[in-house]
Specification:
Elements: H1 2-38, H2 41-57, E1 69-72, E2 78-82, H3 85-88, H4 98-108, H5 120-133, H6 143-152, H7 159-175, H8 178-188, H9 198-206, H10 215-222, H11 237-253, H12 259-267, H13 282-299, H14 311-334, E3 338-341, H15 345-358, E4 373-381, E5 387-391, H16 405-408, H17 418-427, E6 436-439, E7 455-458, H18 459-464, H19 468-478, H20 480-489, H21 515-526, E8 530-531, E9 537-541, E10 547-550, E11 556-557, H22 561-576, E12 591-596, E13 602-608, E14 612-620, H23 634-646, H24 663-670, H25 681-684
Parallel strand pairs: 1-3
Antiparallel strand pairs: 1-2, 3-9, 4-5, 4-14, 6-7, 8-11, 9-10, 12-13, 13-14
C-alpha cells in the first residue's frame, strides 16, 4: 500500500513539474512571439521574403563561389595570390570519409538528421537570453543555420540576422537534401590559417587528402571551425587536441565508432605536416597579409590601441580583435581583392641577400632544422613612410610555419634606443649637441663598458661614443614617464608598466622592441619629427575597381623639428667618429646608431639617409651570447651592404641643418648642466609637442644593463 502511495506521489510530482515547465515554455514563446511579431511584424516578414529570394536564386555553384585576391608590388608585378580553397579543393560528399560527417555532426549539431533546419530547444535558450538581454548572446545555430550565415549573411549578432538565418535555414532544407547541406557546409566552413573547406584543411595541416586521413586527424580538423583562433592547430594545438578528444567521445557515445577505435584515436599523436616551403618572398607575403587584414579592420571602424585600464578591458579588446581579424582575413582569401603594396622587389631581394651573405658562415640549426643565428631587417621610404623591404629571417627551404621576426619578434634594443627616448627628447629641453655634460661614476647607476670615464664632454661625443652615464643622467632628468611617452606615441606595442625605470635609458626593457618599430622610430627623426604608421599597403580595391581602403598617411608630430635635426646631425658623427665608424655609404650622407645588449645577445644597427631608413637586428631566437656581436659588426655590415645597393644611382643629399641656439642660452646651459631644476621639462615644453598619457609608475634602478659599446 505504501509503495502504491509513493508511486502516486511521484506521478503527481512529475505532472506538476511538467505543467510548470509547460507554462514557462508558453511564457517564453509568447514573449518571443510578441518580441518578433508584436512590434516587428513587418520587418520580420521582410526578412522572410528576403530569405526566400536568396535561396530560390541559389544553386550548387553558389556554395562553390570564390574569388582570388592578388597582391601587387610597387612596380605592378604580382607578388602572390590569395586563393580561397573552396574552388580548388571542393570535394563531394561521396569523396568524404564517413567519419568526417559523423565527427562534425557529433560536435556541431547532434540533431542534424532529425530537424528541419532549426533545433527549437537550443533556439529557445537563445531566444530567452535575447528577450532578457535585448541582444543575441547565445548560440542555438544548427549546421544549416551556420551554412546560411556563412554563405548569405554576416557574423553580426542581431535579432534581425538571427531571424533571417532561421528563415534561410528552413528554405535550404526545403530545396536541398541533408547530404547536399553537409557537403556545402564541409566545403565552406573556415578551418583557420586561410583554409576553407575540410579538403583544404587536410592538405594544409597534414599535406594529405581528407579521404586518406585517420579518424584522429579527422576529429582534430573538426575541432577547429567552432573557433579557428582558439583552436588554431599552429598556435593553440593543445586546445585543438582537447576538443578532438571531446569529439571522439561524442562519436563513441553516439555509437558511431567502437571502443577500440576510440582508444586508438585518442592515443594517436597529432603531428602537423604543412606543405608550404619558404619562398624568397615569404616574409613579404606574411607581412602583406597582416597589414591588409588590419587595413580591412580599420576600414570597418576598428580602433587599434595598446593601453588598457583593467585585465577585463584587455580581454574584451583581444576577443573583439581576434574575431574581426579572422573575419577580415577570410575576406582577403575569398573577396577577389586587388591589394597594392609599396614593396620594391629589387630592394627586397637585396635586403634578403645582404642578410644571407653576412651570416652565411653560421650554419648551425635548432631541433626543427631552422638556422639558430637569425636576423631581421626593415627598410622604410622616408618620402612617404611606406615599407619598401622587410626580412624576417635568413632564407631557408623549410616546410612549416613562418616566423617573421621583423614584426613578430621583440628584442632588447641596447643603446640603439637612446636617440628615441633620451637624446631627441633632451634636445627639446634646451640641450644642444654642444652642451657640456660630465661623464663620471654614478652611485647605483650604470658603468661604462671599458670602465673609464671621460670627464667633461659634449652631448655629441656622448652619443658618438655611446656613453652610458650621460644617457642615464639625462633620462633621470627627463624622467622615464616622459621618455617612454615618445615610444607610446609611435605605437611601440610592448611597453610594460615595469619599463618605467631608469634602466630603459640603456635599452633594458621587459619585452623589447621589433625591427619594424625601430625603423619607424628613426624614420620619424629623419622626417623632422613626424611619425607615420608603418605599412606596406597603399590601397585595396574590390573586383570592380572600387577603392575599399586607401592608406593616406597622416603624419603625427612626435618630436620638435629642431630637436630631430639636432639628433640627425649628432648621429652622422656616430658613423664618422663613433661606434659606427666604417659604416659610411661613400658620398651619400648618412646617420645611425649602434646597439648591443649584455653578453652580446642582441646586436642592432639603425641608420638612415634622406632616402631610406633601415633597421637591422641580429641574434639567436633563444637569446645567447654570440662572440663578436656588436652593433657595428654583423648588423652594421648588413645595413651597409644593403644601403649601398639601395642607393645606387641616387644623387647624394645632405641632411637639413638645425637652427643654432643663441649664445646667451648656450652660456646659461653651460653654467648649470645636469641640474633638473635648471631645465625643467614642463617649463620648456611647447604646445606643438605631443604629450602621451603615461601610467603613474615609480621608477626604480633594479637591473642596470651595461652597453657593450664605448
Amino acid at each position: 500500500m505504501m509503495s502504491k502511495t509513493k508511486k502516486k506521489k511521484k506521478h503527481r510530482l512529475f505532472w506538476h513539474f511538467f505543467r510548470i515547465q509547460l507554462v514557462l515554455l508558453v511564457l517564453v514563446l509568447t514573449a518571443a512571439a510578441y518580441y518578433f511579431y508584436g512590434g516587428y511584424g513587418k520587418q520580420v516578414e521582410e526578412l522572410r521574403q528576403e530569405a526566400v529570394r536568396l535561396v530560390r536564386q541559389s544553386d550548387v555553384d553558389t556554395f562553390k563561389a570564390n574569388q582570388t585576391s592578388i597582391v601587387y608590388a610597387s612596380d605592378g608585378s604580382v607578388i602572390s595570390t590569395l586563393k580561397g580553397e573552396k574552388d580548388s579543393y571542393y570535394v563531394s560528399i561521396e569523396e568524404m570519409p564517413v567519419d568526417a560527417v559523423t565527427a562534425i555532426v557529433s560536435i556541431e549539431d547532434k540533431k542534424f538528421f532529425r530537424h528541419h533546419g532549426i533545433d527549437y530547444r537550443a533556439l529557445l535558450r537563445a531566444v530567452k537570453a535575447m528577450v532578457q538581454n535585448g541582444e543575441v548572446k547565445q548560440g542555438g545555430s544548427t549546421i544549416t543555420m551556420q551554412l546560411a550565415r556563412n554563405i548569405f549573411l554576416s557574423q553580426e549578432k542581431t535579432w534581425q540576422r538571427k531571424v533571417e538565418e532561421m528563415y534561410i535555414a528552413t528554405e535550404l532544407e526545403n530545396k536541398y537534401s541533408k547530404d547536399q547541406i553537409l557537403e556545402f557546409y564541409l566545403n565552406n566552413i573556415y578551418f583557420g590559417n586561410g583554409y576553407y573547406g575540410i579538403q583544404s584543411a587536410a592538405r594544409g595541416y597534414f599535406d594529405r587528402d581528407v579521404e586518406s586521413l585517420s579518424l584522429s586527424q579527422i576529429a582534430f580538423l573538426c575541432a577547429i571551425p567552432n573557433n579557428p583562433t582558439l583552436y588554431d592547430p599552429v598556435t593553440n594545438k593543445d586546445n585543438t587536441v582537447s576538443r578532438r578528444d571531446r569529439i571522439l567521445k561524442n562519436m563513441l557515445d553516439d555509437g558511431k565508432i567502437s571502443q577500440m577505435d576510440y582508444a586508438q584515436a585518442v592515443a594517436e599523436q597529432i603531428t602537423l605536416n604543412r606543405p608550404q616551403a619558404l619562398a624568397k618572398n615569404d616574409y613579404v607575403e606574411t607581412y602583406t597579409y597582416y597589414c591588409a587584414t588590419r587595413a580591412l579592420m580599420e576600414q570597418q571602424g576598428f580602433v587599434f590601441h595598446e593601453d588598457f585600464k583593467t585585465d577585463e578591458e584587455q580581454q574584451a579588446y583581444e576577443d573583439t580583435y581576434s574575431a574581426l581579424y579572422s573575419e577580415c582575413q577570410k575576406k582577403l582569401y575569398t573577396g577577389g581583392y586587388r591589394i597594392y603594396t609599396s614593396i620594391d622587389l629589387s630592394m627586397q631581394d637585396g635586403l634578403q641577400q645582404s642578410v644571407n651573405d653576412t651570416l652565411s658562415g653560421y650554419t648551425g640549426v635548432n631541433d626543427e632544422g631552422v638556422y639558430e643565428l637569425q636576423a631581421s631587417a626593415v627598410c622604410i621610404d622616408n618620402d612617404n613612410g611606406y615599407v619598401r623591404a622587410i626580412v624576417g629571417g635568413r632564407s631557408q627551404e623549410f616546410p612549416g610555419y613562418t616566423l617573421n621576426r621583423a614584426y613578430q619578434s621583440f628584442r632588447q634594443p641596447g643603446s640603439a634606443i637612446k636617440p628615441l627616448t633620451v637624446y631627441t627628447p633632451s634636445f627639446e629641453q634646451n640641450y644642444t649637441p654642444d652642451s657640456i655634460v660630465t661623464d663620471e661614476p654614478i652611485e647605483d647607476g650604470p658603468r661604462n663598458a671599458n670602465g673609464t670615464y671621460l670627464g667633461e664632454i659634449t652631448v655629441r661625443t656622448a652619443v658618438e661614443k655611446s656613453v652610458n652615464t650621460i644617457a642615464w643622467k639625462l633620462y633621470d632628468q627627463l624622467t622615464p614617464d616622459k621618455g617612454l611617452s615618445y615610444l607610446k606615441a609611435m605605437n611601440f606595442s610592448r611597453i610594460s608598466p615595469s619599463d618605467y625605470r631608469l634602466a630603459t635609458a640603456l635599452g633594458g626593457f621587459t619585452n623589447g622592441v621589433s625591427a619594424l618599430e625601430m625603423a619607424s622610430g628613426f624614420a620619424t627623426i629623419e622626417n623632422d619629427g613626424y611619425y607615420r604608421t608603418p605599412t606596406c599597403i597603399v590601397k585595396i580595391e574590390d573586383g570592380n575597381g572600387t577603392v575599399l581602403y586607401n592608406s593616406g598617411q597622416n603624419p603625427v608630430l612626435i618630436y620638435k623639428k629642431n630637436a630631430a635635426r639636432m639628433m640627425t646631425d649628432v648621429l652622422k658623427g656616430v658613423i664618422t667618429n663613433g661606434t659606427g665608424k666604417g659604416l659610411d655609404l661613400g658620398d651619400m650622407p648618412c646617420a645611425g646608431k649602434t646597439g648591443t645588449t649584455n653578453d652580446q645577445k642582441d646586436g642592432w644597427f639603425v641608420g638612415y639617409t634622406r632616402y631610406y631608413t633601415t633597421s637591422v637586428w641580429v641574434g639567436y631566437d633563444m637569446p645567447k651570447k654570440l662572440q663578436g656581436l656588436m652593433g657595428n659588426t654583423y648588423p652594421g655590415k648588413i645595413w651597409q651592404s644593403f644601403m649601398n645597393k639601395a642607393h645606387e644611382g641616387l644623387e647624394p643629399l645632405e641632411f637639413l641643418p638645425y637652427a643654432r641656439i643663441s649664445d646667451d642660452l648656450l652660456q646659461q646651459q653651460e653654467s648649470g648642466i645636469g641640474q633638473p631644476e635648471d631645465n625643467p621639462a614642463e617649463e620648456t615644453q611647447e604646445e606643438e609637442t605631443p604629450v602621451g598619457e603615461i601610467p603613474d609608475e615609480e621608477t626604480s634602478v633594479e637591473e642596470t644593463p651595461v652597453d657593450a659599446e664605448n
